[in-house]
Amino acid sequence: MNGKMHSATGAFSNDGMRAEILNPFVHKLELDNTYDKIKTAIFTVILLPFRVIVICYLIVTAWFLACIGLYGLSEEDLRRKPMTGWRRALRPVICFIGKLSYLAGGMAITVRGRQVSREEAPILVVAPHSSFLDSCIVYATKMSSVIVRKESMDNYVGKLINYTQPVYVWRDDPNSRQNTIKEIIERATSKEDWPQVLIFPEGTCTNRSCLITFKPGGFYPGVPVQPVTIRYPNARDTVTWTWEGPGALKLLWLTLTQVHSSCEIEFLPVYYPSEEEKRDPKLYARNVRDVMAKALGVPVLDYTYDDCRLIARAKQLGIPGATSAREVSELRSQLGLERSQLELHLAASGMAGRARWLSADEFAVRLGVPANDLSFRLYNIFVQRSSGLVYFPDYLLCAAFLSLQHAPLSHLLSYAFKLYDSQGFGRLNPSNFEEVATRCLGLCQEDAQNTFRQADLDEKGYITYDEFISYAQKKTEFAHIFASDTSHHKPKTQ
Questions:
Q1: Cβ neighbours of residue 23 under 8 Å, at least 6 residues apart?
Q2: Is 16 helix (H, G, I), strand (E, B) or coil?
Q3: Domain ranges of the chain
Q4: Mean pLDDT by 10 residues, the chain (494 residues)
Q5: Would you give the distance in Å from CA 122 to the centre of its chain?
Q6: Closest CA to 1 of 295, 284, 212
Q7: Which pTM does this prediction carry?
Q8: Rounded distance, CA 283 to CA 276, Å?
């Protein structure tokens, strides 16, 4: 594994060459021609109902068998010792039915390589994680034990998940991470005949364009692991479920109305850690990721779970360029803008007397950077297709958000009032306030207008930052503005 490069800010391929900046959390999927629309409509009528009925029948059958197998066992029993006897003998039957449910939906699962025994590799490391349909790996690996949030068990598939004897994660437990790692270590090093532990180390869904940072939890035991890759080599990608893109129901509908879909699962050779890797789980995780990236033919990118949370918060607030927030941060770093803080200086002095709509060359000049590929890519994230220009306050707001991401939202608002006041005084008329409210507070147009009317007590036709803050402090719905650690939406995970 010598000679590999890793960076906290950049993407590197396995040979150490710089990779293109990617956004692994965006997936575009549209029915872009009349033929596809007509075909999908026809199959929705004649194929979808049949497939749904058969799939539901198979899932209910598997669920019924799981109920029988779990009868008389508590969750504590499932955590204390592995299943034996007739309960364990039901697993191949449930796996067979599970595979049939995918086949009934038109998806053929191809398995390459050989799954080794638990003695050879107690842990299976699976990537990339890109879809709820990745759950097929549970059936392909003879119901290996998954890592699952305890709150996810309160649904009809909870019995099926319980049958894998999962490692539970309690999100409301402050020691959840440590307890989960402890249980993984106990399972992986136990002398008993537990199922292999199955881990998606990326921790969230991506579009398979790269492998993001692997969480080290599954590598703490220091035991050999077997890497497992998942591919969906289909002409139309109807399975990828990311931050920006179609929702789960739309993807399921489009997948079930395809004539045929494919999933390829490949078991790679067992990875045996060195003594150094056993001492350093993060190094172990990075090196396994490199092996898997090489097998997949994709670059690695040091995105983390925190990056997902950052993107989620930016999207929730309505920050311009939200889904590309990490890419913006990366480009700013490469252009040296994080060091100079030029954008914040501009934001602090307001936009009075400055052009607000910029071409690519004007954008680079305003930033004080060369007009090159990096500045153009940054420009292209914010360009408005109708005009071909960038609205510079939108870029500055995103830059300020990235620099102030750990500060209370009120700090960002103080910049926004200056940025979106065309006169430069920090006084926002209804139109300007609507811009700020939809970009910083996640308000819709109607709510923004109502908020302005309530905050403009003197009916001056404008409000200042101080006036808005005074109003917001009295409203519980704006309490998050003053919190230093605001809540985030959770990313899509399995």
A1: 209, 323, 324, 326, 327
A2: coil
A3: 11-303, 307-482
A4: 33 36 78 88 95 96 94 88 93 95 96 96 96 94 88 69 87 77 92 94 91 93 97 94 88 95 97 96 96 96 78 88 88 81 60 81 90 93 92 92 88 89 84 93 92 90 92 89 57 40
A5: 27
A6: 284
A7: 0.72
A8: 8
